[in-house]
Design a protein that fits this description.
Layout: E1 2-4, H1 8-19, E2 23-27, E3 32-37, H2 41-51, E4 60-62, H3 66-72, E5 73-74, H4 77-86, E6 91-97, E7 110-114, H5 119-128, E8 132-136, H6 148-155, E9 161-165, E10 177-180, E11 187-188
Parallel strand pairs: 1-9, 2-9, 4-7, 6-10
Antiparallel strand pairs: 2-3, 3-8, 4-8, 5-6, 6-7, 10-11
Helix pairs in contact: 1-5
Catalytic activity: L-threonine + hydrogencarbonate + ATP = L-threonylcarbamoyladenylate + diphosphate + H2O
Main location: cytoplasm
Keywords: ATP-binding, Cytoplasm, Nucleotide-binding, Nucleotidyltransferase, Transferase, tRNA processing
Length: about 190
């Protein structure tokens, strides 16, 4: 496993690992997260195993921009306006999933999507040019880990994880806000 400081070179290295089906731990706008290629079933399964997360609980996606989000979700004018207001940033929005899209770890009818503001992740998404499943890097039911030394200690022996991007300790430690906008009535989930 590689422990890498965030940089353009590290983004390229992480993208290459993700394309090969590896899991990467990376800081986000909110907490450290597990990342995997959403088009790779084996990689997504690895996140569920590492996290000990029930398969019935869907994961969220990181995407590069609204155009990429529109490839996976049905987005109307009103929703688009809202997304432009809050993205990039700490908000994850649940939208209706487009039929026929083959991505793993997601709900059958909806998809939770976020465009991160964190510069390293923005660069990584440009390099990989595909959606990434993401979830906080912790064991399911435990609080999100904020200390990089704890993350390295707990997850360094996981063979599916090929890199940890060391962005230092997280100050907030609060996961993203999740808002369901699949209907006219918006519903805050978290």
């Amino acid at each position: 496993m590689k422990i890498i400081k965030p940089s353009l070179r590290a983004a390229a290295a992480a993208a290459a690992l993700l394309k090969k089906g590896s899991v990467v731990i990376c800081p986000t706008d909110t907490v450290y997260g597990f990342l995997a290629d959403a088009t790779n079933e084996r990689a997504v399964d690895a996140i569920y195993k590492i996290k000990k997360r029930p398969r019935k609980k869907p994961l969220s996606l990181f995407v590069r921009n609204i155009a990429m989000a529109e490839e996976m979700a049905i987005i109307n004018k009103q929703q688009r306006k809202m997304l432009k207001k809050f993205w990039p940033g700490e908000y994850t929005f649940i939208l209706k999933r487009k039929p026929g899209i083959v991505l793993y770890g997601l709900d059958e009818r909806t998809v939770a999507i976020r465009i991160p503001r964190y510069p390293f992740l923005s660069n990584l998404l440009k390099k990989i040019d595909r959606p990434l499943v993401q979830t906080s890097s912790n064991v399911s039911g435990q609080p999100p880990l904020q200390n990089i030394k704890d993350i390295i200690k707990i997850f360094s022996k996981e063979t599916s994880i090929k890199a940890i991007i060391d962005g230092g300790d997280m100050k907030k430690g609060v996961p993203s806000k999740i808002i369901n906008i699949t209907s006219k009535l918006q519903k805050k989930i978290r």
